[in-house]
Fold this sequence. Notes:
Elements: H1 3-58, H2 63-68, H3 83-96, E1 104-109, E2 115-124, H4 130-135, E3 140-149
Antiparallel strand pairs: 1-2, 2-3
Helix pairs in contact: 1-3
Amino acid sequence: xxxxxxxxxxxxxxxxxxxxxxxxxxxxxxxxxxxxxxxxxxxxxxxxxxxxxxxxxxxxxxxxxxxxxxxxxxxxxxxxxxxxxxxxxxxxxxxxxxxxxxxxxxxxxxxxxxxxxxxxxxxxxxxxxxxxxxxxxxxxxxxxxxxxxxx
Length: 151
């Protein structure tokens, strides 16, 4: 056996180890990118639902308030929204249009009587790193807020 053959055998073992390490690193990188994409998509979905719920709630008003014209905003407009109207409209919207992800309404109010502010929250559970996120609290908290004005 020549000395060169012995070195080639040692190098082939090292190359196999190096190749295995790079493959493991590449697979971990793919898992992280796919999981980050899943969290981003959950966030985009939550923002979309918050926007749609706020737009729907901005036009919600009880018939009594509509016909009575009570509680006018500062600039004299006769129509006003109440916090109860906004919350009812958001709950009704979510019941009629299920978002596809579990979420919680953390806020539904009308800060000025003319606009509706909706805040939603969910927990994103990345598909390839669920074992990791479950070990540290069960997921990644995602929140979204949106404000809409009907007039």
